Amino acid sequence: MSSKRGRPRHPDVLTPAEWRVVDAVRHGMSNRQIATRREISVDAVKFHVANALLKLGVERRADLRTWRGVPADSALRTLRQGVPAMTSATVQLGAIGQISQPVRDITTAVEWYGKVLGLPHLYTFGDLAFFDCGGTRLFLSATEESQANAEPSVLYFRVDDIQTAYDDLRARGVEFENAPHLIHKHESGVEEWMAFFPDPDGHLLAIMAQVPPA
């Protein structure tokens, strides 16, 4: 009896590696940025992007940015299963959950914000660091020295249901740069989901949701 060769078909529409790359694409990262962040080659990123485009039946990389997919094992998918259809009541944005601040050197910034200002350090991932500011998260990201003073801060508004908030804001005329996408999954299982949009002056804003495991 003959047997099929190769890996067994993955139960989700994308493999875990493809999901990570697609979420990075939805976040607006370039192939090189994704490769650096994921510690893989640029060719590997291109391979995953090409596979995702083929599996999802879309032609352009730009189409991935607005694709609404959610991983089968995501806490967000479980949460959405019990959410009724959106009514005429509009979604209200919550408190500001995060503010981003570009910095020239992440090591120097972490030292200064932590030891000089005394802000509680939450965690650091490579060139990204997070501090607690009385319940609002400060997000520091290393950037080019010439851009550190030019890039404005980003305000992240908390929402209970990011998919419903996304739909409601789009209905109100908000033009999102990307669909809600997974930014990070903590060891506790809590997922960080975000979607970004500009205000009338082009300043970047975002909605964010922390989704606990089911």
From TrEMBL:
Pfam families: GerE, Glyoxalase. It comes from the Bacteria. Keywords: DNA-binding, Transcription, Transcription regulation. Residues 95-210 form the VOC domain. Residues 7-72 form the HTH luxR-type domain. InterPro entries: Glyas_Bleomycin-R_OHBP_Dase, Glyas_Fos-R_dOase_dom, Sig_transdc_resp-reg_C-effctor, Tscrpt_reg_LuxR_C, VOC_core, WH-like_DNA-bd_sf. Gene3D superfamilies: 2,3-Dihydroxybiphenyl 1,2-Dioxygenase, domain 1 (3.10.180.10), Winged helix-like DNA-binding domain superfamily/Winged helix DNA-binding domain (1.10.10.10). The keyword Transcription applies. This is Regulatory LuxR family protein. It comes from Kribbella orskensis.
